Amino acid sequence: MATSDTNTRPVFTTTNPATLAPGKSYPGHSAEDAANKARLAAEAQRPWRRTGIDERARHMKQAAAVLRSRRDELAALMTEEMGKTVTDGLAEVEKCATACEHFAARAASYLAREPVAIDGARAFVTFNPLGVVLAVMPWNFPFWQVFRFAAPALMAGNGGVLKHASNVPGCALAIESVFRDAGFPEHLFATALVPSAAVKALIEDGNIAAVTLTGSVPAGRSVATAAGAVLKKCVLELGGADAYLVLEDADLRAAAKVCAAARMVNAGQSCIAGKRFIVVREVRAAFEAALVEAMAAYEMGDPRDPHTRLGPLQSVAARDQIHAQVEASVRAGARLLLGGTLPAQAGAWYPPTVLADVRTGQPAHDEEVFGPVAAIIEAADEREAIAIANASEFGLGSGVLTSNLARGERIAADELDAGMSFVNDNVRSDPRMPFGGVKHSGFGRECAGFGIREFVNVKSVQVKA
To answer: What CA–CA distance (Å, rounded) separates 2 from 32?
Structure first.
């Protein structure tokens, strides 16, 4: 959490979610410090935009090497600050390195000029950087969320200022050091350790050209309002209540394993975690039993142990909110099939939990439950299952479980209101595929060519002979 000292500079103190032991404290930055970082980033970005793509790629590939050389240290930092299992932390560091390599290799093609056939003139579209992008990032994937933005943004010739979540200040500073150690120009990418109240002023700062946020719907509204008021581009990746359709022709044991993996990613603390499992009536009972078995396999344990599959949640307050949603759903008629009790141990722990008979009016149906809680919803048939899936304010990820691949592809491609739809697999981000949502899950895209072009000036050029 962040507190202020007498010099108006906040102090960020971490807490280990597994034990509630206090962690390190980090001196933060004042509003003046943050503005100065934006100014220096803008000064560094001006020559960077004219740096050749091959030179940018050289630094980005070095960033991948730095990440891999520090993988154990960075994974341990995630475990200490937000409770991620060390196995997941190591995988996250590797994913960041892979993204750096991907954009180093593909940026030239993503940003290549596109010729346009116009009689009597030479015409083309070119893609120029916007400037410095402010990134307001969450704690749940403290490295990946940042590199998912930073790798394409820097390769496009932009600079970056990071305002990270207050409970992962060590991760925020470590990310800045990765780019510094990789040889990027000084100040081009900077971390500002400031509270959320400082974001509006940064958005309004003349040295900030655009803003990207991953976070809650209220945070998205706040950032979009501030950016709109000063006419600055923003990309928002917000919440999700991802629906997975389990059809009558699915292999139920395999489907349950996919659904459990989808629900339990990062202890359920993911916008693209599967949250609503909509099951056709004739297989509902069998699927319930299969999902309980699959979810029960995620046993709570020390997040530092490489064999642990379920670590703590990020805070006790977050855990208590999830438990309140479970209890309210049960009071409203949901059946508790697994979990749903507070462990008798210190720390932000919550067991894998399965609710059945989930219906409209229950928090498990209507709200995003940001933890290891699976909600089973019955549908009469495929048509009703699709209708239930789409009857949500969110539209981030979605899934279809079926043995008929053509059927699954049709539903995924044409019927589900979501930015991503996977068949017989759990939704995940990938630097090669665009990532983002619709409705209250936000707008804009990250990753792939679509993501790198979000923060560029798409410029039309025509030259008459």
So the answer is: 17
